[in-house]
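Data card: per-record layout.
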Amino acid sequence: MDFVTDGLKKTFDAILAAGVPKDRIHSVKGSITDSEVQKSLINETVQKFGKIDVLINNAGGVKNDEKDQRSMASLDYCLEVNLKAIPFYCIAKAALDHFARNYAAILAPQGIRINNLNPGLTDTAGVKRSGASDEMIQKMRNFYISQIPFRRAAASEEMGEFILFMASEKASYMTGQCINVDGGMLINSPSIKFD
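The structure for this 195-residue chain is written out next.
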C-alpha cells in the first residue's frame, strides 16, 4: 500500500470511528495540482451530497524527492501545490488572507462566509515528508518552540476544533477574518538580556 492510499485509509477509518456513516464519506484520489482532480473534488462532492457546506483549503507541501530543495522543480511543485491549487485565484498562502477578506465581502450577500485559520507550529506528518533528517527536523522544531510563548507545538486536533468552530453556526456572524492560532508566536517579544 502506497503512502497516499495508506493515508486515505487511516483518514477513512478515523472518520468511521468518529461515528460518521460510510455513505457520508467520499474521497477523490489524485494530485491537488491536477485541474481534473480539482474539478472532481467539487463535482463529485456536489453530485454525492447535493451541495458543499464547508470548503477547507489545506493543501500544502514541498517536493521531497528533489536533492536540491532550491531547484526550479522544487519551486514549480511548491507553487503548484501552495499557489495554483487554491480555487478561483492563483494565490500564494500569504495572499489567502487578502483573498478571504475580498471574497467574504463579495459572497456575504449570498450567506457564504469565508474565514482563514492561520495555524502556528502543529504536529503533523507533513514535516517528516519534507525529506529533512530527523536531526534537522528536531533542530527546527526546537527553534520554533523557543519562539512560541506557550513553548509547545499545537496538536492537529486543536486546529481541527477551531475549524469546526469557524464552520459552525456559533461563528455565524464571522466572515472575512484571518485568525492566528499560533500559541502566541506573533506576539512573542523576547526579553532583552543586559548581562
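Known properties of this structure: The radius of gyration is 19 Å. The first helix runs from residue 3 to 17.

See the next section for split statistics.
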